[in-house]
Amino acid sequence: MATPGLAVAPATDLALSGLTKLFGTSTAVDGVTLRIRAGEMVALLGPSGCGKTTTLRMIAGLVEPTEGDVMIGGSRVTHIPVHRRNIGMLFQNYALFPHLSVAENVAFGLQMRGLRKAAIRPRVEAALALVQLGEYADRLPSALSGGQQQRVALARAIVIEPSLLLLDEPLGALDRNLRESMQVEIRQIQKRLGITAVLVTHDQEEALTMADRVVIMRDGKLEQVGTPQEIYSRPATRFVASFIGASNFLRGRVEGRSGGQSLVRLVGGGRVEIPWPGDDRKDVLISVRPEAVALAPLDEVVPGALGGTSATVQQVVYKGQATHIHLRLDDAEPFVAFLPNRQGESISQSYAVGDKVWASWSPQSNWLVADS
Ligand SMILES: Nc1ncnc2c1ncn2[C@@H]1O[C@H](COP(=O)(O)OP(=O)(O)OP(=O)(O)O)[C@@H](O)[C@H]1O
Ligand SMILES: [Mg+2]
Question: SS3 of 7, please?
């Protein structure tokens, strides 16, 4: 849908190749190669210190790469300064000018670019309308809530009609409810304008909610790249599986294969089938999401049944939507089942510490991960 007064340049793609940054002798970003399609929103997600912000700052031109290249719309911009890259930025500390009105804050970037008043006005109005702040144009930032200030900062970032929008923990300062509604709002605006965007966050829900693709970073490197669903349901490594959502890990040994399935005996007891044709690996690590696990009293189960393991209840934690049942297997690893609480009743009363249970899950819930 066209936005009157705010013409966005055709979306540009972004390519990073072998992007590397050393601070002294320590490597903050280590050979990052990534293509971001025109109009796509990609989230860089990873633990503190893994190199997300440094990567974003190299894309922006605020940090000079030690090695590698940044290409925007097919042009190499690696050594072009930030003000010549036509990039819109939104950071956690939005730093509006306190003595300028909302409209003046948004107009600032256009004035710097030498636009005339008559050209600035409709663009500022359109940008403020887009973030639903049209009526606040004359207020000072101090008379706005945190969420409204961050919307002004977003309007300021998009009013210059950037070819790329970079967001670094843009909602970190906001409380949870506001953050969730702003996530949806920013995503809608990004899609509506068709603007290519890179979002840095350490909040997995934010990444899953907002991005077309999620990039998991670890120690300056890319660990896995995929759609939110791919990253969640097909994590490549133990690190990814435990960083995105919760996961149980089970060690096992492959006992047989047939028809694209492998039969695995779990170290902690029990046997499961995996939809995996197998290779030369014998010892495997399986990830099972806690919400995929069902529990039943052990005495109701046929001895030696396939698809689960016996366990002992160690702790029962009521969490509102779900009850988390922490279990002990013969394996040393912790294991947890998330059981939904139905309206008005809690599953908590059904289990007590020390109960012997049968924990089971479907073969499709078994996902093989690399142990790293
Ligand atoms: N200007 C700098 N000088 C020296 N070291 C730096 C500098 N900026 C970042 N680093 C280091 O580089 C590494 C990556 O930092 P970066 O800010 O990119 O992490 P991050 O993934 O954004 O983390 P966070 O989630 O905490 O914001 C860290 O070890 C950090 O201490
Ligand atoms: Mg950071």
Answer: coil
